[in-house]
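Lecture 7 notes: from sequence to structure.
We start with the chain below.
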Amino acid sequence: MRAIKYIAIHCTATSQNTSISAIQSYWKNQLGWKMPGYHFIVKPDGETVNLLPIEQVSNGVKGFNSQTINISYIGGIDLNNAPKDTRTPAQKASILKLLKDFKQKFPTATIQGHRDFPNVHKACPSFDAKKEYKDV
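Predicted structure tokens for the same chain:
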């Protein structure tokens, strides 16, 4: 098992009705990635989809992927494509469950948003994950 130092929270920066297959197609065809951007994606109904085993490295945060588990929710923008916390109550509950499970396995891991990493100039995940999950 690789050493996990971070659990990063992301948004897909898409509308909530974007399919996971469309997101995966974007990674492969537009970005040229061989691996997914996240280990888990949480759909608006709260369903958690595991895209990659946590033992493998995903493409979530450049320079930190080898030590990070990446979790995203579908959404994160408003109708004008501006950053907005669009998490549904079901998404919030599913993310919290994942975080609690991972903190049991990796108690020293820091939970933070993509935007909280050094040299990241994004709003992702469109809310203050570090503050919201500080007590997990």
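Points to note: The chain has a mean pLDDT of 94. Residues 6-132 form a domain with the Lysozyme-like fold (CATH 3.40.80.10).
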